[in-house]
Specification:
alpha/beta, 6 helices, 37% helix, 15% strand, elongated
Amino acid sequence: MIRTVLLACVGVSLLVATQAWGQDEKKVEISAAEKAALETLRKSGGTVLEIAQNDNRVEVSFHLSDAKIGDKQLEPLKGLKSVYSLNLRGAEVTDAGLANLSGLTGLKRLHLELTKVSDKGIPALLKLESVEYLNLYGTQITNAGLQQLGKMKNLKKVYIWQTKVDIAGVTAFKKAAPKIKVIPDLVVELAKKKAAEKATVGMEV
């Protein structure tokens, strides 16, 4: 009797685990045309990898490529629904080239650090409604551009290190879009700096 109960419990546990695994599994339908486009990206110097064994969405990266990567090399990206992450760090991508990202409905993570992107490219970014992570380190984004990014309904983190965004821009952005984390948070950093200076003065007295 006890053995029967134990076997039943094990069976239920396996069933639950299988169902949980199935829920975590992410599968997207990749057409022949999309597979051909991904292969073109590989040939142009990009790395295309599935993000997990049970998840056939892909990460496309150009930041380790020895080839010159510019707007032209991004053209095959248009409309690719399987792209989960795109890393263009250091590429010679301009505002005009961001138009090639249209139709990336599954894109969650976008690295644009050290590219030639400026506020003029913001309209193209606003069309990427699924993006949760956006890295703009070392770009020409200003306070005005940052404010527009608050319209990205799924954005959770935006990196602004070494851009033209200042503390006034961060302050205004945090008020308009409090759910989006700005890194570095210039407001918090200034408060910490003032607290440290005050503590130092107190010790000297």
